Amino acid sequence: MKFKEVKPLIKIDDLDKIDIRVGTITKVEDVEKSDKLVKLSVDFGEFQRTILVGMKEERDDPKEIEGVQALFVVNIAPRKMMGIESEGMLFDLGYENEIVPVLANPEKPVPNGTCAG
């Protein structure tokens, strides 16, 4: 594992700007012509989102995360990749440390849309 330096200090108000919520991954689909991307359909209770993630090379079968709850940033600006708009970001662990990322998920089921923090 590659250890990273601690990032510069921020104020608590900065952290309050990030909206992290629990969502259930209801569907995982391949993004054709992409070596990395898969398309997640995610249920946040009151709303649904399409979120693209670069996990195709990280897992033998990305569909293994269907039905799993995970943490997502839901207030990041939408971004179009491979012609598909991604409406959030999966909050995973390990990528920055150069290890195979794993999902950040609650220790037990909680209602979709539950806020972190």
Topology:
Elements: H1 12-15, E1 20-30, E2 38-43, E3 48-53, E4 69-73, E5 79-81, E6 84-86, E7 89-90, E8 92-93, E9 102-103
What's this, in brief?
The chain has 117 residues and is mostly beta strands. The protein has one helix and nine strands.
What is the number of beta strands? Answer: 9
Widest beta sheet: strand line-up:
3-2-1-4-7
Q: What is the quaternary state of this protein?
A: single chain
Unreliable runs: none
Which structural category do the helix and sheet elements fall into? mainly beta
Number of helices: 1
- Secondary-structure element sequence? HEEEEEEEEE
Query: What portion of residues is helical?
Result: under 10%
CATH architecture: Beta Barrel
CATH-level-4 superfamily name: Nucleic acid-binding proteins
Molecular structure report:
The chain has a single domain, classed as Nucleic acid-binding proteins (OB fold (Dihydrolipoamide Acetyltransferase, E2P)). The protein is mainly beta and 117 residues long. The longest helix has 4 residues. The mean pLDDT is 95. The chain has 1 helix and 9 strands. β2 and β3 form a beta hairpin. The chain has a 5-stranded antiparallel β-sheet with strand order 3-2-1-4-7, with no helix packed on it.
Question: What are the salient characteristics of this protein?
Answer:
five-stranded antiparallel β-sheet; single chain; mainly beta; OB fold (Dihydrolipoamide Acetyltransferase, E2P); 117 residues; two-stranded antiparallel ribbon
